[in-house]
Structures are given as C-alpha cells and as structure tokens.
C-alpha cells in the first residue's frame, strides 16, 4: 500500500478501530490505533515529531484495518512509525534478533539438542530476562535439523505442481509438519516442491526493522517468481506467511519497479493450504476418503488468517471428516502475535488479551484445539491445559483413521 493510499482524510474519528483493537480492550493507558495511526500521522506528515513508546505495543493483527468502515490503512501507518521509533539499547538488541528468526534458526540448529537444553534451563531464561528482557514465563519451541526436502518426483503421474513456502517455524522447528503438508497435498493430487526461501519478513516488520523486512521481501520474490512464471501456485501453511506473500510484499516493494510485476504475480498465485483444499472441495475434487474420527474439536482463526479475507477454510474442511464435531470459538485475538508475547514488558498484556480465548476453550472442553498459526498454538497451550494442533495434522490423520 502506498503512502497516498492510506486514505488518511477518510478517518472520521469514529473510534471503530479502537473498539476492534485487542490491546485497547485490556490496557486503559494504550492510546489506541486511532491516535497512533491517523491522528499522529497527520503530524508526522507535517514533519512534527510524534514518536511515542506506545507504537511498540501494536500487535500488528490488522483488526483495525478490517474494522474501519472507510478503508483507512491504520496498521500500516503505525508500522511505518514503528520502524522510525528509537529504542533503548537492550530492547533494540533483543528486537534485532527477534526480527531474524531465520538467522536464529540456522544458529540454533547447528547443535539443536544443546540449544534446546540451554533454552529450557531456568538459569538461562533468568539471564535472558535480565539481559534481553525476554520473559522467563514462556517456553521456547524445540529446534531440530532443517531437513525438509522436496520429495522425489513421480514421473508416471501428471500432477498439478505447487511451490510450498514453509516459513521459519516449519523449517527450523517443525519440518515434520512440512512433510505432512506435502503428504496431504499429494493425497489430493498435487506434486509439491519446497521453495528455497528466507523468512517471510513478518517478524522483521513487527519488530520495526523495515530494512530487514525489505531485504527478505526482495529475496523471496526473486526466489519464487521463476516457479510462478512456470505456472506453479504458491502454498503456505502459516497464516502470517500467507498474509505477507499476498499483501506485505506489495507494501514493502511498492517503489521497486524491477520487482513490482513479480510481486503482483506472487500475490495472485498464493494460497493457504486450507484455501486450496476448500477450492478442491467446492469443485468436487477433494479426497474425502476419511475414516471415522469421533472427536470434539474447537477451532481458533488466527488474526492474519482473517486479514486475508478467505473465510474459515479449515473449519469447513474439518467439518467434513465423519465423526468430528467442531466449534468455531470466534473469541478474538490470542494475544501472542509472534514475538510480542515473549517480550517481558508485554507479557501481561499478551495473556490478558488471550483470556477470552482461554475462557472459551475451557467452556468448550474440546479434545484439542485446531489452529493454523504456530504462535497461536503456543499461546493456547500456555493459557490452557488443552493441546493445540495444525489442521493439516488432523486432516492427514483422518485419512489413516487415527487422530492423536
């Protein structure tokens, strides 16, 4: 989105964005997206300093954009201002690392067993809380060797080809989930190639590192465009990655004349795995050879999935499995927002935002919770006693007649 597309004059100060903001709802001191976005943007455009610490407390959930009846790009105004915000040294260093999960993943997976042991030690977490302002109350996801590979091609079969954008979490923490994505797509008639891509750039943008987000966008566009030009569609299994490929690259590279056409091609060719499979279902082409599951699930839709405007494909796909009953919780933002919930000064806000979701899950009493966002899964398991799992795993297990 360009600066002149923010439609700043369309803001009528109706406060609908504030009403939709999860942070505004739990912190009475938070100015809200209306002030941090369009109101302060008017000053910023006039060259008047309007920097404020509160910019750091925006979740980047885009709920303000979705709620605005006048199409004001509230979250992007805040993101631009956040990128120029001056941070103290310690927080700046912490956020520099949080903006680079790909680099962090490469380092921690050199010796993943040692990395996991170190990250689980109370002493190490205490040290990180004092030196890096990372809350010791969170549990870090386990790292493993990044061994996700493109499976051997089946030369005897003519299958539609897909390019899978795995993202950092699948690449460095859950490559087994990536293999399950590939197997699920294979069962539905697709041949999948794992893209040689970098981090999508969402963590960099969320941590105010515009230069890193821009660099990741350029690298990924250059990596993906050849496959798209060859007729391949891009699939994601992470709602944040999907949002970035569909929308974020366009904002970051809006002035790059060389890559602008490629950005548009990638955005038009990108689908969430669930979005792709629900299209298969609508066309009568979904593999519905499911076994009886007999399971009660709850479904949580991540914010970045909602911001893509694709409905709830996974909710409707899981409903097709015999014996599964599933409740759409519709309980707002989980409050984790990637690295946001790991930051010591934001931990209480993160948990307070998630409380409505925790209460809904506890009231539902499901056997497990399905959600396609890895950090939503972390937050759910942190705030409740229920296991959270990617819908890909449930659907794939349903073909085999065994759901964990």
Helix percentage: 40-55%
Strand content: 5-15%
Tally of domains: 3
| Strand element count | 8
Anisotropy-based shape: globular
- End-to-end Cα distance, whole Å, is 43 Å
Main sheet makeup: 4 strands, parallel
Low-confidence stretches: none
Reading the helices and strands in chain order gives HHHHHHHHHEHHEHHEHHEHEHHEHEHEH
Can you give the mean pLDDT? 94
So what's the CATH class of the largest domain? Alpha Beta
Total helices: the number is: 21
Quickly give the structural class: alpha/beta
Strand line-up in the sheet with most strands: 2-1-3-4
CATH topology of the largest domain: Rossmann fold
Describe the structure.
This protein has 404 residues and is α/β, with parallel strands linked by helices. 50% of the residues lie in helices and 8% in strands. The chain contains 21 helices and eight strands. It has a four-stranded parallel β-sheet. It has a four-stranded parallel β-sheet with strand order 6-5-7-8. Helix 3 (33-45) crosses helix 5 (74-83), helix 11 (175-187) packs across helix 21 (391-400) and helix 13 (210-229) crosses helix 15 (260-269). The chain is globular, with a radius of gyration of 21 Å. The N and C termini lie far apart (43 Å). The relative contact order is 0.11. The mean pLDDT is 94.
Primary descriptors:
globular; 404 residues; 8% strand; four-stranded parallel sheet; Fumarate Reductase Iron-sulfur Protein, Chain B, domain 2; alpha/beta; Rossmann fold; 50% helix
